[in-house]
Design a protein that fits this description.
The structure holds 2 protein chains of 2 kinds. Chain A is built from 2 helices and 11 strands; from the N terminus they run αβββββββββββα. By secondary structure, chain A is α+β, with helices and mostly antiparallel strands. By secondary structure, chain B is an all-alpha fold. Chain B has a single domain, classed as Cytochrome c oxidase-like, subunit I domain (Cytochrome C Oxidase, Chain A). Chain B has 17 helices and no strands. The chains are: A alpha+beta, B mainly alpha.
């Protein structure tokens, strides 16, 4: 074929570089826990409001310092809008949609999921830093898309648990913007 | 030290090139290609006028309320921008350009011109069908139309017809190549013709996903025949088409970079074999990579996502080949023009030729686009950038620069060629390319940074209620980049319109189709780099392995249970 020797070396370097990248993301993903979501569960979006646990979304403490968060995305709000957890909590986040596709990206974390009706998106994350971390809808879902967000509040100490599912559900019907103060605590 | 110093040991073994004058396109053929370009350029100009409106919105300057009678919202503008620029401009330009590369490359007429004519008119009917709901705000679903956002049935039908029309034209290209091969047994197909037809074949394989999605779910659902769709399956179908779509855009630019630009720069194609190899590799690995758009999807196992990450890296390889061969070809040209130095030769390229400058600038931006593309392929890095402003930042370097700015550069010789005109205002055209380049650097860099900060894509951030102050500087830079790009679009429109309405000139003043000879005679290229069968077979096997199991699983477990919103969400 008559490949130029410089080009042969270039090809070798290219292949090596790509192989190194692949090894790095593989180790990062499968050995070090920087992992994307996979298959979790399916749910019928038409009967979501009658299906547990989606009928009562919110936080549940499953063990000391360990939580499950169920979040329903719908045009154009998240339910609940606030997830409050003590610092150091390990939270398994489940999100699904009752209508359109949405996104769920928690700012300044590695939590980023596509939310698809019929499917449950799941990621596990440990919140090690005190602060407020907005979760934004990152997929176009209509007119109110730009106002669709909620907040993870990571608070100091472990005394008050944030398993406040009932208060959170009170915000379900509103679609008038992402004001987190509407959540009663 | 240069890669071009060594003599070619096999060079004497080849037959001498035929010196017969090239068969240029007939008037009729030029008109036919020209019609594709009229639709394409009109789409680019209209679609590109929407883009800056989005960019201005980012810093709070919302123009949309002022134009409400025509365009109803930011999202309708964004939908029109995406559909016209990413789908209509590209597809019509590419099919028109492939007509030219086929006819001029093979130096023979289309074997069945009526097939290509039929294909073109199907595309036009499709475009008009989709335009009605698009302009009527009945299809404000963005150019990805993720189900269950439900557009008017006419939108889905129109898109289908555009794709079907492009298939029909593709058939016309194969038949022409087939006819040529019967007339030229044992002769290697000319690169520019072969490249275009490989791209058409890849496109036909790739768009099967889109066809399945529209015909089995979206169209019947929008017509009310079924109540709901399976959104995850529609995503898998969509990205089966959606990623190879970017190579469908890119390969015609590569044809020009490999097969035309070296000639325009005064040189030759460095390696005919590797040019072909990279095109065949694109046919092989363009399609089975779609899950890298679904890295953070539910419903797709991590293993398949990881496999597609590896395959996406592999599709990067032909682009690194391209970088080497194209740069070596340009270096050869520049050194012939007296260029010296390790890098200094770059200055000797014909930077004053707007067609060359536009394509060189496009290629420079593509290097950054390629680096960003590697990031996008990198599996868990998707946790950082998925659905953020990084992504449009990325594809404005690729489709909106590497592809679009190259196509613009091509039109700077192609429109005069097709219309027997001279390019109006070559200096304006030159300025246009640079303005595009500068605007895109500012816009795209700011978008990348915003993405890393966590800003979502396709969102009117000027109105969003959660935007922290830290983003403001970059939001402003997006608007500034958009304003500069608007100037570039206006200049481009000016050059095209003035050229089209300029006087006809004598034949010797009309630019010819630039075709680069290769340094080594194409006859030295091995036969396996000129045969469709092994590569098509390989592509089919790879598709079955990389997509088969997961696709079958999703189809067998299909639930058409997502009806969408109970109201029109836009």
């Amino acid at each position: 074929m008559g490949i130029d020797p410089y080009e042969k070396n270039w090809m070798r370097v290219s292949i090596l570089l790509l192989a190194v990248f692949f090894v790095i993301v593989t180790i990062g993903g499968f050995a070090m826990g920087f992992q994307v979501s996979g298959v979790s569960d399916e749910v019928d979006p038409r009967t979501l409001a009658q299906t547990e646990p989606w009928a009562n979304p919110g936080l549940r403490e499953v063990a000391p310092g360990e939580y499950e968060a169920y979040v329903v995305a719908q045009a154009w709000t998240f339910n609940p809008r606030v997830l409050e957890v003590p610092v150091g909590s390990k939270v398994t986040i489940y999100v699904t949609s009752s209508d359109l596709q949405h996104g769920f990206k928690v700012t300044d974390t590695n939590i980023n999921m596509q939310i698809v009706p019929g499917q449950v998106s799941k990621l596990v994350y440990t919140f090690d830093t005190v602060g407020e971390f907005p979760y934004l809808c990152t997929e176009y879902c209509g007119t109110g898309h730009a106002t669709m967000y909620g907040t993870v509040k990571v608070v100091a100490g472990s005394g008050t648990s944030g398993s406040d599912a009932n208060a959170s559900t009170s915000t379900i019907a509103s679609s008038s913007g992402g004001a987190t103060t509407e959540v009663t605590r | 030290m240069t890669v071009l110093d060594q003599p070619d040991p096999q060079a004497p073994a080849v037959p001498t090139r035929q010196a017969a004058p090239a068969r240029e396109l007939t008037e009729q053929e030029r008109r036919f290609v020209g019609w594709h370009l009229i639709v394409a350029i009109a789409a680019l100009l209209v679609g590109s006028l929407m883009g800056p409106l989005q960019a201005f919105e980012y810093s709070g300057v919302n123009v949309y309320p002022w134009i409400e009678p025509i365009i109803h919202s930011y999202y309708q503008g964004l939908t029109i921008h995406g559909v016209l620029n990413a789908l209509v401009w590209t597809t019509f330009f590419i099919v028109g350009f492939t007509n030219l590369t086929t006819i001029r490359g093979l130096q023979r007429p289309l074997s069945h011109p009526w097939i290509n004519k039929a294909g073109f008119w199907i595309m036009v009917v499709g475009l008009l069908t989709a335009a009605v709901p698009l302009l009527g705000n009945q299809a404000t679903v963005l150019y990805t139309f993720y189900a269950p956002l439900k557009a008017s049935w006419a939108f889905y039908l129109g898109l289908t017809l555009v794709v079907v029309g492009s298939w029909v034209e593709g058939l016309g290209f194969y038949l022409t190549l087939w006819a040529w091969r019967k007339e030229h047994r044992g002769v290697r197909s000319p690169f520019i013709a072969l490249g275009g037809i490989i791209n058409a074949a890849m496109w036909q394989i790739a768009t099967l996903g889109l066809a399945a999605s529209i015909l089995t779910m979206l169209l019947p659902w929008s017509l009310g025949l079924i109540d709901g769709v399976d959104p995850e399956l529609s995503r898998t179908y969509f990205w089966f088409t959606g990623h190879p779509l970017v190579y469908f855009w890119l390969l015609p630019a590569y044809i020009s970079w490999y097969g035309m630009l070296p000639h325009q720069a005064g040189g030759k194609l460095f390696s005919d074999s590797l040019a072909r190899l990279s095109f065949w590799m694109f046919l092989l690995v363009s399609v089975p990579v779609g899950f890298h758009h679904q890295f953070v999807d539910p419903g797709v196992p991590q293993t398949w996502k990881w496999i597609h990450a590896g395959l996406t890296y592999s599709v990067f390889f032909p682009s690194t080949l391209t970088a080497f061969t194209v740069i070596a070809s340009l270096e050869y040209a520049a050194r012939k023009r007296g260029g010296t130095g390790l890098i200094g030769w770059v200055r000797q390229l014909p930077w004053t030729d707007p067609s060359v400058a536009a394509q060189l600038l496009a290629a420079i931006l593509f290097m950054f686009g390629g680096i960003g593309g590697l990031t996008n392929a990198s599996y868990n890095l998707n946790l950082v950038i998925h659905n953020t402003a990084w992504v449009p930042g990325h594809f404005h370097l690729t489709v909106a620069s590497a592809v679009t700015l190259s196509f613009i550069g091509i039109t700077y010789w192609m429109v005069p060629y097709l219309m027997n005109k001279k390019l109006w205002g070559p200096r304006v055209a030159l300025v246009q390319a640079w303005v595009w380049f500068v605007g895109m650097i500012i816009f795209s860099n700011a978008m990348h940074v915003l993405g890393l900060l966590g800003a979502p894509r396709r969102t009117p951030l000027g109105e969003a209620t959660y935007v922290p102050e830290a983003w403001n500087g970059n939001l402003l830079r997006v608007s500034i980049g958009g304003a500069i790009l608007l100037v570039a679009v206006i200049l481009y429109g000016l050059v095209m319109i003035r050229t089209a309405f300029g006087p006809k000139v004598a034949p010797e003043e009309v630019p010819a189709v630039p075709i680069a000879e290769s340094i080594r005679h194409p006859q030295l290229t091995p036969v396996w780099l000129d045969r469709f069968k092994p590569w098509l077979l390989g592509a089919a096997v790879l598709l079955l392995i990389a997509y088969g199991p997961q696709l079958v699983d999703q189809i067998l477990n299909m639930h058409l249970n997502a009806p969408g919103a109970s109201f029109r969400p836009w």
